[in-house]
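Kindly review these tokens for lecture notes.

. . .
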Amino acid sequence: MSIPTPHISAKLGDFAETVLMPGDPLRAKFIAENFLTDAVLVNNVRGINGYTGYYKGKRVSVMASGMGQPSIGIYSYELYNFYGVKNIIRVGSCGSFDKDLHVRDIIIAQGACTNGNYASQYKLPGTFCPIADFGLLRKAVECAEKLGVNYKVGNILSSDTFYDDSNSGMEWAKMGVLGVEMESAALYCNAARAGKSALCICTVSDSFIYPEENTTAEEREKSFTKMMEIALELA
């Protein structure tokens, strides 16, 4: 496939080797405007804002993924395979299954369980386990320690359903799964297939244990700054 691709209007070289990938286009805009210098808009197809600028002198990009595995599957595939991107760090929000994690705490996803079928395309003779790049994971833990944030490392659930008719979310908790979001498994699969690196860092936006804890859309867009700082330090 030639570039621009059907979903990204950028030219070759417009993206840095490392791309931060929030779900929300407005969070991408917030990161670019508040953390990057000399940020330039390089993509806005379908309102999926993508920017490239500098963080502490290092060239870095940020682009939204949209919601769900099909959406991040498209954008991360094109970035890895057509734009020369080497690292994608998802900076998202999640619901917590863990009693020790509260709103604004952080999950660093070592692995991603899923109720979806994204990995079936690879026709493997078994079940593939999507996992993070260990180098990125180790550095993220070091950054979290330096920032003094409350975090846990472990499995996360990438669910294809937000409104789950079976209400099965907490069933995953008995296997030690820390929380739920909707993108990481597809990102990890694409990274593995392309021979690239990926990591998911999620801020807890609500809790299955403490239902009184939640955040607004604006808070999710603008106040999850510790997660953003960790990801930018990795870049």
Remarks:
- Strands lie at 18-21, 37-43, 50-55, 58-63, 87-96, 106-114, 151-158, 179-181, 197-207.
